[in-house]
Write a structure and sequence with these properties.
Blueprint lengths: L2 H20 L15 E4 L2 E4 L4 E7 L2 E6 L5 H9 L8 E3 L2 E5 L5 H35 L4 H35 L1
Antiparallel strand pairs: 1-2, 3-4, 4-6, 5-6
Length: 178
């Protein structure tokens, strides 16, 4: 396994962590917060962004401009049932979604969840490292090349673990500070 492949796989773990973090509601409006919401429309389940346009006109307000007036109730129900703790308020073809204040208890809970996501990302990076080291071992390279390759893989691993820690630290500050 070459170093670029290792980096690419570790980047995948970082990207997955980024997506997990955007789904954590921090009390600040974010369009990506509704990414996981599916709406029943025209006989099938579709992502909410296919039923209307999502905007953040204010830091603590999301709006969904529903394109088909017949879908307003379905969009409202999907948001309410999403498990995000949001209370949509229809206003014509526009649905306003105010971001409720987070209690200190909920903030601590969100930090723990972010910590779990962080640990999962670290495990994924370590698994990539393990696979790379196994590949190096199976290649039966000379001892000095093996050591050099192992060191390079470890250096990349340390770099990605550091990035994951930075992302967690930033998310933790965002959750606590909001």
């Amino acid at each position: 396994m070459d170093l670029e492949t290792v980096r690419h796989k570790m980047d995948g773990a970082l990207e997955a962590l980024r997506k997990e973090f955007t789904g954590l509601r921090t009390g600040r409006a974010s369009v990506s917060l509704l990414d996981s919401v599916k709406v029943e429309a025209y006989g099938s389940m579709v992502p909410i962004n296919q039923a209307g346009s999502i905007n953040t006109p204010e830091p603590r307000l999301l709006t969904v401009q529903v394109w088909d007036a017949g879908l307003i109730k379905a969009v409202e129900k999907a948001i309410r049932d999403s498990g995000l703790g949001l209370n949509p308020q229809p206003d014509g073809n526009l649905i306003r979604i105010p971001m409720p204040e987070l209690s200190q208890e909920r903030r601590q809970e969100l930090v723990k969840i972010a910590g779990k996501y962080t640990e999962q990302a670290k495990v994924a990076v370590r698994n990539v490292r393990r696979d790379a080291l196994d590949g190096i071992k199976k290649a039966k390279l000379p001892e000095d090349e093996t050591k050099s390759s192992n060191d390079k893989v470890q250096k990349v691993t340390d770099e990605f673990i550091g990035k994951i820690e930075e992302m967690f630290s930033a998310k933790e500050k965002e959750i606590i500070k909001v």
